Amino acid sequence: MAFTAKDVKELREKTGAGMMDCKKALTENNGDLEAAVDYLRQKGLAAAAKKATRVAAEGLIGGVVEGAVGALVEVNCETDFVARGDIFQSLLKDVSMQVAACPNVEYVSIDEIPEDVVEKEKQIEMGRDDLSGKPEQIKEKIVEGRIAKRLNELVLLSQPYIKDSSLTVEDLVKQAAAKIGENIKVRRFTRYTLGEGIEKNQMDFAEEVASMQTN
After folding, report:
1. In Å, what is the CA distance from 21 to each residue of 6, 12, 27, 28, 207?
2. C-alpha to C-alpha distance for 140 and 125, rounded to whole angstroms
3. What percentage of the chain exceeds 90 in pLDDT?
């Protein structure tokens, strides 16, 4: 299947890859745009993986405030020069927005989840009524799948990227690493919700009026 300059441009917009890389991806995949996207993503992940063992001690702390929700995120890279660049700062903003949009996320990666949390989730799933009477081997497989799904719900890097659900946050970070040529790590984050932890007065309207009349 042939492809046009318009196809190359669209692929560049979708992936952020260079023009020659986009041409090669379309050539390798017979002009199939979606297959070319997958091809570039795989290449990006492979390139980033080679850098993953290098020390990332520079970077930035950034954040966003969206109405009643705020988020702070630390993202690390290898050099201060990269941290000042547009690609890195755009990534930092995107990850901060992702944290603000994900109230149930508690950890950066699966590796950070404590073993006791994993065990608790396993016990909950093993005790569900719909598994009653199933053979133990089948039950284990079902529980394993459910736990994996549940744990990924708690992890920032596993979340679908809010601007493009075909990517995860991990894909986004690794694509940025491939473009920049350095190791990039999301180290930690904090999410704030206005009024969180404050015990609110539950007085209803009638009680409020009666209180005002008494005073």
Report:
1. 15, 9, 10, 10, 68
2. 10
3. 38
3-state helix, strand, coil in the chain (%, to 5): 55, 15, 25
State the pairing for strand pair 164-168/160-161.
antiparallel
φ/ψ (deg, to 5) at 10: -65, -40
**Other C-beta atoms lying within 10 Å of the C-beta of residue 142:** 16
Residue range 21-42: mean pLDDT, rounded:
84
- Interacting residues of 72 by C-beta distance below 8 A, sequence separation 6+: 61, 62, 63, 96, 189, 190, 192
Asked if 104 contacts 135 with a C-beta cutoff of 8 angstroms, the reply is: no
Distance CA 75, CA 188 (A): 8
Note the pLDDT tens digit of each residue in 75-94: 999 999 999 999 999 999 99
Kindly state the tokens that stand for 79. Answer: 């050099």
pLDDT at 178 over 60: yes
Task: In whole angstroms, give the CA distance from residue 167 to residue 26.
Answer: 19
Query: Which pLDDT band holds residue 51 (cuts at 50, 70, 90)?
Result: low
Coil vs helix vs strand at 74 = strand
Give the pLDDT band of residue 70 (cuts 50, 70, 90). Answer: very high
For tokens 């190791």, the residue is 183
